[in-house]
Design a protein that fits this description.
215 residues; mainly alpha; Rossmann fold; 3-stranded parallel sheet; two-stranded parallel sheet; 10 helices; 45% helix; 8% strand
Length: 215
């Protein structure tokens, strides 16, 4: 992102100082560049050029990066395919193509039926409401905010869920420590998602929202 910003905007501004946690890609750009005299209109006028350069760099570097898949992720996503009243979606601050590159690297993008991305909005708290619209388009059914379970590893994910009245699940596998996450009072908390059975049991028991497929 730094290199792409330099090429498109002439500077990366404060990007190496900005905390990326829970921030959408456009917001990272704005927080990095606006203090250096590049206004929001200019940022968005050139954002497609930025995205193309960023995606090219990301695609080339992902195979050589130190990125790892966190505990239990693949197993949980696979387990959720066995349930007929769960739709797995991706709400992320990443641009769509960036998320695709990252998750295809681990062969898990295929598990997500729908998503909301930074291309849709740079405001994270708007994403659950866009997700509800996408779910209606996907299924023809009207979903309520309380039908959403938002899982994340930052305080911004908890805030995003609470703003929309969704159920919030905090996981301490990111850069935010468990105590800080718990201070923001998520509905549920896991140290990590390595115990797939425990996670599914918790959601089923308290919300009765998972039902095993009947073949």
């Amino acid at each position: 992102m730094v290199q792409a910003a330099i090429e498109v905007y002439g500077t990366a501004g404060d990007m190496e100082l900005v905390n990326f946690q829970g921030r959408t890609d456009p917001l990272i750009l704005m927080q990095s560049l606006i203090p250096h005299g590049i206004n929001e209109d200019t940022i968005f006028a050139h954002i497609e050029a930025f995205k193309q350069r960023y995606f090219a760099y990301l695609k080339n570097t992902m195979p050589h990066s130190e990125a790892i898949l966190l505990p239990g992720i693949r197993e949980l996503l696979q387990a959720l395919t066995e349930y007929n009243n769960v739709i797995v979606g991706l709400l992320t601050g990443n641009f769509y193509q960036g998320a695709l590159i990252k998750l295809q690297h681990f062969d898990i993008f295929k598990y997500f039926s729908m998503g909301v991305f930074a291309d849709d909005t740079h405001i994270r708290n708007e994403m659950p409401f866009i997700a509800l619209q996408r779910l209606y388009s996907l299924t023809g059914r009207t979903f309520k905010p309380e039908n959403l379970i938002i899982i994340g590893d930052t305080i911004y994910d908890i805030e995003c869920g609470k703003t929309s009245d969704a159920i919030t699940v905090a996981v301490a596998t990111g850069w935010t420590d468990a105590q800080t996450l718990l201070q923001h009072k998520p509905d549920y908390f896991f140290q990590d998602l390595s115990d797939t059975r425990a996670f599914l049991h918790t959601i089923k028991e308290l919300h009765d929202c998972i039902e095993l497929k009947v073949e």
